[in-house]
Amino acid sequence: MINSKSSNLLTLQAVHTHIGPYHILQGVDLNVAHGQLTMLLGRNGAGKSTTLRTIMGLWQASAGELSLDGASIKGMNTADIALRGIGYVPENMGIFSDLSVRENMLLAARSGPMDPQRLEWIFGLFPALKQFWEKPAGKLSGGQKQMVAIGRAILEKRRLYMFDEPSKGLAPVMINSMIAALRELKKEGATILLVEQNLAVAQALGDAVAVMDSGRIIHNGSMAELSRDTELQQRLLGLSVGAH
């Protein structure tokens, strides 16, 4: 258990997750500091998405401890974890295709009516949301759906935002819009945990970085340090930030 005065908002200590017969997370130790954007990087199948899903209670940790601002969230159901102040965008975006953009956004307004000022801020980040406000979300392009998912997650201020590969499948212009939006969120002092495969996105946004392999965290450090060290990039990821 972490101390409530810790600089870390989220802490995972020796977390294990089993999915059926498969042992996916094998002792994950992860800290997400208040007010920072922490990148969670790693090759496909390293356990990044499973880590986010375990934090949200979608899959229950079989061992270890998960703490949010000093209070354990292990064993809690997903709805109660979300009510602790976590906004989560899964890899599949979680959009309700038959509902309009407006109706999708309304689902995120847990504390009452949508704040008009906050909504206009989101429209400034993602003008397409205003343009297609009454259109079924299922009719939007992949990039526009991702904007709905992100917009829904940030509609109300959260203690922690988690995004699972938000740039996946997006055209470069949409990736640039997403980066700009997350930079604006950082200016609010938001705490963000971001899973990414696109190292250019990681370089543009990350403060801290944790690298996963085979269900464990194998590296912690600053994103700036990893960006400068091509040898470390190759060893940890088999990739180079400068090549993306």
TrEMBL record:
Query: CDD domains from the entry?
Result: ABC_TM1139_LivF_branched
* A GO biological process held by the record: L-amino acid transport
Q: Which Pfam families match?
A: ABC_tran
Which ranges carry the ABC transporter domain? Answer: 10-239
Alphabetical keyword list: Amino-acid transport, ATP-binding, Cell membrane, Membrane, Nucleotide-binding, Transport
| Keyword NADP attached | no
The answer on whether this UniProt entry bears the keyword Transport reads yes
User: Which PROSITE patterns is this protein grouped with?
Assistant: ABC_TRANSPORTER_1, ABC_TRANSPORTER_2
Q: Molecular function terms in GO for this entry?
A: ATP binding; ATP hydrolysis activity; branched-chain amino acid transmembrane transporter activity
For this protein, the record's InterPro entries field holds: AAA+_ATPase, ABC_transporter-like_ATP-bd, ABC_transporter-like_CS, BCAA_Transport_ATP-bd_LivF, P-loop_NTPase
Domain of life, per lineage: Bacteria
Family according to the record:
Belongs to the ABC transporter superfamily.
Tell me the PANTHER family matching this sequence: ABC TRANSPORTER ATP-BINDING PROTEIN, HIGH-AFFINITY BRANCHED-CHAIN AMINO ACID TRANSPORT ATP-BINDING PROTEIN LIVF
Full protein name: ABC transporter ATP-binding protein
Q: Which organism is it from?
A: Undibacterium terreum
The taxonomic lineage of its organism, from the top, reads: Bacteria, Pseudomonadati, Pseudomonadota, Betaproteobacteria, Burkholderiales
